[in-house]
Specification:
heterodimer; A: about 250 residues; alpha/beta; 7-stranded mixed β-sheet; 11 helices; about 15% strand; B: about 70 residues; alpha+beta; Alpha-Beta Plaits
Amino acid sequence: MSIVFEKPHALTDAALHYCPGCTHGIIHRLVAEAIDDLKIEGKTVGVAPVGCAVMAYNYFACDMVEAAHGRAPAVATGLKRAMPDNIIFTYQGDGDLASIGMAETVHAATRNENITVIFVNNAIYGMTGGQMAPTSLPGQVTQTSPYGRDVNVCGYPIKICELLSNLDGPEYLERVAVNNVKNVKNAKRAIKKAFENQINKKGFSLIEVISSCPTNWGMTPDQALAWIDEKMIPYYPLGVYKDKSAQKDSEVKA
Amino acid sequence: MAKVTFKTDLCKGCGLCVTVCPKKLIVLSKDKLNKKGHSPAEMTDEEKCIGCAFCATMCPDCVITVEK
């Protein structure tokens, strides 16, 4: 008998603190699998965010740094410039990356810093108890929008991939989801590519992962995954939003 | 036939493996509780398991190891 599936080496044995059914665990595993596949565990440094994933440093077996709220891309910029041979990734939620850390995100992208950003979008502030996030959908009921998000008062959700794709800087932007087996396998490919881009010195790669929050959405884990299909993916279409190298290749061929 | 092992004490009983199993072989235990107090997932009929590892792919807590 051979092993078909086991826990990746780049994850520690610590039990994850996430709520039952939270897909943060799947995304952690996909990042660890990419680190294992590329055999870069010894030279990888991760930057943990503030939010649900704040304790990511307990779970990844590589070196980790904890950044101030939203400042992970800035910390990663410093790490990468000081240690260009190391592989630097950040792991951030939507409150961290799309709200308080928006400036750092946009500027790291426009400078095309050679880092990998894993952006977990679950359309709500999870750790603080389910308040409305910049990525909450129009009409979505949260603790701070009990009648649903009113776009006339609160504005529209921020679509990070679309926003950053207008910049000339970033190398690779893709949005994936982890709500079924097919999407998880696709997310794995995307995350691995984001790390490969950094190894090949291509520049800023951001993977937006549509994730679930059963606890704060008030659903069972199963219903939450179905809600991603019904509500989130139509608003946040999956796909590659920018791939500068592929663009260049096709221009050369043309 | 494939061999599926569960690290029972890591399981949070979310049931994502139960819904994703194409052969419907996994259930949440009705008579056992793990260290955390959750009803852990368990295999009912290993003989029928095809070793697709869908359960392990969807498990957020790396509870499941699949051998084939």
